[in-house]
Each structure stands twice: as structure tokens, then as C-alpha cells.
Task: structure prediction
Amino acid sequence: MTEKKQPETNASADVEGSKIKAGDIVMAEFDAWIVDTNELFDTTNEALAKENNIHNEKMVYGAQPLIVGKERLFPGLDEHMLKAEVGKEYEVVIPSEKAAGPRDPKLVELHPVREFLKQDIEPRVGLEVTVKNRPAYITAVTAGRVRVDFNNRLAGKSLKYNYKITQKPTDPKEIVALLLKMAYGSSEGFDVEHHGKSYKIKLPDSCKYDQKWFIAKYRVVSDLRDVADAETVTFLEEYVKPEKKEPVLEAKAEPEKKESVPEAKAEPEKKESVPEAKAKPEKKEPAPEAKKAEPEMKKKPEPAAESRAPEELSEEDRKV
Result:
């Protein structure tokens, strides 16, 4: 299965009834079952995948590209497809020996739970894991122990395939596009030139720094040799210096000249100045103890009665 992207090529179907030979790349529809349990484990039919709870949102359902006769498929399926014809439906049951092979008990190991917890993995049955760079899946979880199986999930099981080859592309550019999809997941942006057994593939900018492409390109070369009998495969990486764009100077509109008319300045209002009454400083009376005793006024001695004016004499004085 490939990543969820719509097909990018218009590979034309070969004439119905044409035979398949080793090295052909074909488009095929198929449903794959485990015989003993009648469990669907792979399909190109989206509706069937949903019915059997194996739907994958990252996959594109529909006919898929397959390389026949180059040990890319289970041996039993490979052999059967070499006898198939385009457009016909087939059913084949493949014994475990010609499918994923026999199951090896030595490939089942027990590992401490803490090994998974250290990697922030919560172990559960059916979980696919990588242990010491080997792919495996968990078959049991007990107290402190996890049973890990390094066998293929289909090992020791007989398989049944219902399939139909829908197309057998023959155009070299279409074949390269399909091989790019199989190896890299997309053929968008690749430019292909083909001359005899020489292929030149110009890379898009999107994959020049993609780590995934560094691995995928070796598979593309291998597939081209198996499928197209290529002798020379050239990958072109083009790096174009971007042109410097000169800044466009916009003509600035000159500001309109306005005649300056002097504005009549308003005369400031004259305010009559009213002298403010100055507050008299308060006289501070000295503290009682600081006061100096004022000298007593000496009273003048009253004049004697004789010397007084007659009008000033009292009646007693007048009698004398």
C-alpha cells in the first residue's frame, strides 16, 4: 500500500488477456485472507477494509503497483501471477511454506516491562515494536514480563488471495513514475528523460533535503534495473541562484504648495491688575514668662484741699 495520494500517472492498461512475465510492473486489485481464521489482513477495497476494521486513513485504496517475478511478493503468489492474464480474476491458496514461511519458536523472547517503560511505551498485546533494531510485535503481557515475537505475523499460516491484474503499463516514463511511487511515495515534480537503457531523472526541490529520498533512490535504481533493464540511471539536482529583484522606486508626488496667509493673531486680553491685599504678618505675642513686667505708672499726688479750685472742694472742705 502507498501513502494517501491520488495516482499521478495515466498508465494505460495493456490489452486484456496479455500474459505477465518476470520483471513486469502491473496494477492489481486484491483481497488477502488468513485461511484458518478467515481473517482479512490486506485489501485494495476501501469498503471491505472498513467492514473488517482494518481501514487505514493513510492509504489510497484501489489498484496497486506490483513487480512480478522478482521476489518482491510471497513466492506462491509470485508463481501464480506469472501465469495470470490482464483483466481476469483469480483465487489462489498459498501454504505457509510459500507465504511467510514457518514460524520459528526461537524468535519469541521475554523482555522486562521496564525496557518498554523507559522508552515511554505502554506494552499491550498486538502492539508493533522495535527491539534492538528488529521489528516485532507483542503477543502477551504478564507481571513484569512482555512476550515479543520477531516472526512475521503471517508466519506458519496459509493465505488466500483473490486478485485481478487491471493494467500492465509499457511506457517507460509511466513505469518510472510507478516505481517512484512505490519507493518514495510520490512521483510529483520528477522530470524523466529516457534514451534506450539510459534514464535521467531530474529531482524536484521537495526531495533534495529529504532523508527519506536518500534511502528511496537506491531502491529506484534497483527497480529500474529489474523492471526496465536500465544500464545507466542519473539523478539530476539543479540549484538555481535566485535573481535579485531591483527595488522599484516609486515616483513620489510633490506636495501641493499652499500659499501661506498669515493668520491674524488674536491680541491677548488685557487683564486689569488688581493689587492683592498683602496679609499682615501676625504678631506673635511673647510667652508669659518672656514678658517684661511693665513699670507701674506713678500716680501724681492729689493736690491738697487748699489748693484746689473752689468748684473742686467737697462740702466738708467748704465748711472748714
